[in-house]
Amino acid sequence: MLRDLYSGKNVPVEVPPATAGALRPFPQIAGSASSLLAFCQFVVASTAALVVGLTLDGTTRPMASAIVASSLGAFASPRIVTGQSVSDV
Q1: Which helix (H) or strand (E) holds 71?
Q2: pTM for the complete prediction?
Q3: Which of the chain's termini has less CB crowding within 10 Å, N or C?
Q4: pLDDT in tens, 6-61
Q5: What is the domain count for the chain?
Q6: Could you give the CA distance from residue 36 to residue 87 in angstroms, rounded to a whole number?
Q7: Do the domain assignments include residue 5?
Q8: Is residue 2 part of a domain?
Q9: Burial 21-35 (b: 16+ CB within 10 A, else e)
Q10: Residues 78, 85: contact at Cβ < 8 Å?
């Protein structure tokens, strides 16, 4: 169960409702906000792929480092964006 939580199997189940919930207060700009979200996802993913490819040394260390960095960024983003801690959000 815990392994499935972190393996990405739940992404197709969790992301659409979360995105719809985040866009609900702004129906007039939902299309623009949705496309901006997709653009940001593509930029982050392509940047991570580039960094992993450039630092590839035959081990899993570059990919593991990218996963850790993205996890820390996801954890820190509420504080960075809103100035609130994760427990306040």
Answers
A1: helix 61-82
A2: 0.68
A3: N
A4: 666 777 787 888 888 888 888 899 889 889 988 988 998 999 999 999 999 999 99
A5: 1
A6: 26
A7: no
A8: no
A9: eebeeeeeeeeeeee
A10: yes
Q: What pLDDT is recorded for position 28?
A: 93
Give the E-state strand segments of the chain in sequence order: none
List the structure tokens of 62: 């570059």
Which residue bears the tokens 């949705």?
Answer: 34
Strands (E), 10-77: none
Residue 49 lies in a domain: yes
Q: Note the pLDDT of residue 39.
A: 94
Residue (of 89, 74, 80) closest to 41 by Cα position: 74
Residue 49 to residues 44, 54, 64: CA-CA distances in angstroms?
9, 9, 12
pLDDT at 63: 92
Tokens of 49: 């792929």
Predicted local distance difference test score (pLDDT) of residue 25: 86
